[in-house]
Amino acid sequence: MPMRCNRKERQTTIMKALQVTAPGKFEIVEIPKPKPGPGQILMRVEAVATCPQWDLHLRHNEPMFIGHTFKYPYTVGQPGHEATGDIAEVGPGVTSVATGDRVSAWKDQGHQIQGCYAQYVVLQEENVIKVPRDLPPEAVSPVELAMCVGTVFLMLKEMNGAAGRTVAIGGLGPAGLIAAQMARAEGAKEVIGFDLLPERRKNALNLGLDRVFDPADHPFARRPGKPEIETAVDCVGAKKSVEFLMDLTGDILALFGVQREDYTFSPLHYNGLRLCGYKGHSRKAAEYAVDLISKGSLNLAPLVSHSLPLEAYNQGIEMLEKQQATKICFRPWRDQ
């Protein structure tokens, strides 16, 4: 039954949120504004960025990984999880942040609870991190993705795998553009990018990569020997992309892209190639990413090619699908 209240009451008790009702279909629904419980905060969502993997797979009812399935209608507010905003209210026991702080979500809390495609969202205190107030929302909403890539670079630092090296990035989408900037921040001698799309290669050059190539047209020799590329990070996950970098990389290949097929480690790779996988979410990696943002060494704003109202959700996802956008920022409030 619809909730009945006057306009003033609606402004304080009712909010708008997005719900994907079927593949390729969504509604803007009105639901009660949530209240934070113990150890939780209520964020007034300023902006929420797409995660193209989740949004596009949900649009087509395609499993994200082996054994995964989608159920429709999908959880309200999902799959939004890369969000930034101000803390509107804190629950009992919250001590690390306060009402009025600007924060970003750094950890996806799971798709069984309300997500961030909404005007307000409840988040666990430990799953948000303070971010600079002087930056546009496009520069801080994708902190969760930066945290994910940051786990790779914390691992590479432990392996002495970035500073002074020629580092290659496979795939120059949002994750690849973050990886390239982190490689530069960690003192890479040269940062090289590979991508099939000319527009992505152009964007990467604008972000300061030294050289970019179509994987089908490059000057690098295959193993064995002493490859020019010493460290690589794959941000695609496809078998062809990973094995391409395995063939060209001399020492370390970090696997960040979502794996859906087995990769072949052949005798060509025996001479010293090290493979390392993704370790998962980490508060330390979130702090690492936000520190780089605060220092000006990591700029997430160029990842966001368009900002749209939440009501234009399908339009934005269609742009991602047609590769007319890198990332979309949705604004849940019409006055933004």
Summarize the structure in words:
Helix content is 25%, strand content 25%. The protein is globular. It is an alpha/beta fold and 336 residues long. The protein folds into 2 domains: 167 residues, Quinone Oxidoreductase, Chain A, domain 1 (Alpha-Beta Complex); 132 residues, Rossmann fold (3-Layer(aba) Sandwich), CATH 3.40.50.720. The strands form 3 sheets. Strands 3, 4, 5, 6, 7, 14 and 15 form a 7-stranded mixed sheet that branches. The chain is built from 8 helices and 15 strands.
Attribute tags:
Rossmann fold; alpha/beta; 336 residues; Quinone Oxidoreductase, Chain A, domain 1; seven-stranded mixed β-sheet; globular
Order of helices and strands: HEEEHEEEEHEHEHEEHEEHEHE
Radius of gyration: 21 Å
Query: What is the tally of helical segments?
Result: 8
- Give the helix level as a range of percent: 25-40%
Strand content: 25-35%
CATH class of the largest domain: Alpha Beta
CATH architecture of the largest domain: Alpha-Beta Complex
Largest sheet: 7 strands, mixed
Number of domains: 2
Number of beta strands: 15
